[in-house]
Structures
1.
Amino acid sequence: MSKDNLGKKNSIVLIALIVALGGFLMGFDASVISGVNKFIELEFALTKLELGWAVASLTLTATLAMMVAGPVSDRIGRKKVLTYAAILYTISALGSAVAPSFLLLVIARMIGGIGVGASLIIAPMYIAEIAPPNRRGQLVSFNQLNIVIGISAAFFSNYFILQLGESDAAWAQSLKFAEYNWRWMLGLEAVPAIIYFFALFIVPRSPRWLAMKGQYDEALRIMKQNSSAEEAEKVLASVKENLGEEKPEKVPLSALFKPALRLVLTIGLVIGILQQITGINSVFFYAPMIFEQSGIGTDASFVQAILVGIVNLVFTLVAIALIDRLGRKPLLIFGVAGIIVSMFLLSYAFSEATYTLTEASVQTLPEKLDKSTLTPLIDQTYTDDVSYKTALRETLGEDTAKSFESELITAAVSMNSWLVLSCILGFVAAFAISVGPVMWVLFSELFPLWIRGLAISFVGLVNSAVSFLVQLIFPWELDTLGSATTFLIYGVFAALGLIFIIMKVPETKGKTLEELEKRLVK
């Protein structure tokens, strides 16, 4: 490879990495709340649905932002929308950190949700429009990789801040990490958000967007920076041909439902729903809570949440290495099958759990808890988590039961916590190698250029709406249906999705966006 070609190849990688930093912020912003939940639940005296709202409020505005981000980017450009998203991330991080009330915390997170929705849609779209066909899957997957790194960074930073809160160091105590732990967790995001804002200055505008706006000379100039002059001219000619003179400047929503787009829209919607309805954000946003249900305690639950982030990162890298070799469909089939197995085993593990407080186990509980109030529960065995938690609330009262829930579960539960950990990690690995990165690659490939912004916004909106509902009701599901039933439901949805993938999803690797349009849009 010549130095010129190597330089162009490295230039595309650098641009993709910078643009994908929006994914890092999305992952961090979304998952940092997993470490915050326990503290804000007590500080603001939240109900389970209010706790779900604190988590899901970000996704609500992300859902709304997704619907407009694509059309807005069609109008003002992909790069400009990403720049505005970086500003919103910064405002959200600082606002969440200083929020004096639950209402203002939710408002700050909703502001961040607008940035999440915009960057989640526009970053993969931009990368797909600048990437060569033979590397498109890999480069678009950078966005998912950065989401995963952001999730892992949030788990690490949450645990690190907890440890600083217990430190005797004068500087740590002066910064009040113990008193303001959850505020530090949320505020830390402002640092990468500011970096993202300035890094976007070296990113060019999307050449395909420029072509769509009739700025062919500028589009060709940018294409030549990333490929040979001959290849750039060939791609631009193909883009012009596919745009056609008849394509309207402003595409109405009704155009999405034309018969020609039925196949790609159906695939996009099903894969978008599948990615969320199998429970991935329940794991990412509530990881410590899930692990606490297995009886390992608060500190250990944060450590195991870090393992979730590491596994997610490792298997996302595996997916990036394989997506342009094996293809999109084989990864989807293998990964979704793994999700099914993991969720069914996880459901089994919780269904086998029993809960019994003994005289000895009661003595291990914190001194702050009046142990005499637990006398009616000693040597009583409960066969599911719902009945045990209900008995705790009836005996201790709602507030006390909530404050000491983790310790009370640890003292009473008898279950295979290693099976729970293995199933969660297996689920995350299966997700990370399949619907995690593959969904965004498919979104960027399925839809023709003239409607791509609107189409990706629409399927992204549905994806985010399902995510919002999953996050909102998860604490309620655990409390009302129990862990076993909740995870069984996720496994059933995954099984239905696998059938659809086998029957309907095409392979898209190695083809230009224009070739895919001719094949899939009749």
Note: The beta strands are 354-356, 381-382, 413-414.
2.
Amino acid sequence: MDSQTKEYQVMARKWRPKGFDEVAGQDHVVRTLQNAVKLERIAHAFIFSGPRGVGKTSIARILAKALNCERGPTPDPCQVCVHCREIADGIALDVREIDGASNRGIDEIRELRENIKFLPASARFKIYIIDEVHMLTREAFNALLKTLEEPPSHVVFIFATTETHKIPATILSRCQCFDFRRISRGEIAANLRKIAAGEGIEIGDRGLAWIAAAGDGSLRDAQSVFDQVVSYAGKVVADEHIEELLGLTDRRFVAAVAAAVLARDGAGCLKSIDEAYYAGVDMPVFYHLLLEHFRNLVMAKVVPEAEGMTEMSREDWTRLQEQTASVSRETLQRLLEILMAEEETMRRTQNPRLTLEMALMRMARVAPLIPIDEILARMAALENRLRSGMPAPAAREGAPAPAPALAPGRAETGADNPAAKAVQESPPPPYGETLPTPSPTREEDCGWEGFKDFIRRSHPSLCSKLAPGRLLGREGDVLRIGFPRRHVFFEDIERHQRRDITDLARRFFQRPELEVVVEALRGEGGAGDAKALKGPGDYLPNNEIRREALKSPLLQKVMDVFEQAEIREVHPRPTSAGEGERDPLPE
């Protein structure tokens, strides 16, 4: 029994890669080192940095074999010569592996400096592999500087670390640095499948995917978990065994909660959370699993063929696609945004269960969102139906078309306007195309209502923004239009759409030099205020009102006291009879 125990090796050691071709997930490092050995461009010092369990020390040993193999230097060490076997067993005299955490002082580095002067005992190079080199003291690093800059030709240093930022820049500049990456779940699962085949172990793809996920990018960690699973379940590993050992029962609750959210079943969400809580599921961990699940749902909806982006098994990916079949992308994005907004709260809260429950209740109340493309398609279909219901132009040639019915309460302003009639008698062309040019008989016939009706036929959305506006007057080639100061679209009209209004006004009034000026009304009346303006004194430009407000001494004092204060809107104080002008009130 004792002899069998001594002979047993854990999977992480037994299946450690022996050559460059067996390394998983570090192709950029392997290719560079193979070419360096092949071209005999060997640096005197290397730094291998990256997460734990991704192959740093293993590649350091393989590089030592490649340099000292009897057939070498060669990128494909033979694995059978004396040097290759001794390096693999860790007993080579000329390849020393040093733990930087326990040999971190200046005395150990001084001893190393004395030893590197001597030639190798039997190999071609003397190789020093220092693991966790960032643990060396500052004095030890300083003692290494000169040696690293001008080492003997028979010495190669290989440093491995998980924390590159702790290594002094003077050391980094004297070494070739290689950044090792986390290994993808697919590559880890493929490696575990190879081990299972070699060990005669039966396990499904879903179980391998779970073990690979437990490794979190570390192949060594995943192999250790696999070893533990085999010890628990034996040579035939079922998914239930992995679920029990790794505590994956919470994934079942994740699926139940997600189904309840998509079904807008708030009660079902609360029941699933209650069952998960009393089953011992950690609520912050459960939140992150739920966040990952909804991220995968979005991925399955947006990129149906992106299975590799989630690193899930084919079975789980198919289930995700089935779950998202009847849900729009916009709805899934909204649900994910609600979950993401609670991340900071979940990190700080003292009651994570309550926080998660409230988030799920908000998610369950989200109404299905209609994609914008579908909305536009519906609007286009409605517009086509409305247009198809209008009389054909040929039917109007013999007799005038009957006037369209007006909405109750709508004034027939502009009904006698020839320009308005010309616009009403022709269907509106798409905005941006050539519009029919009205031919008014008199300039006074071209009133504000006729102009708005002209815009309504050619640019409906712009007409709705102009509804509360008033025509202040025309002076030569300048058309002044006033809007209430609180009009929600005033800034948009003034900054972005004034050019569109000018183009339409030039066509309507047949004046190519006409310019439109947009101004803020001075009064406080809203869109329905029927009070007539009497002259230019009844309005002030918006910029002038703002400048007058900024000159107020009281406002300057407020701005000095409150550093974060900002002016969002300016309203003039109402004036009473007999009072002069008063300062505007900023908000």
Note: The mean pLDDT is 76.
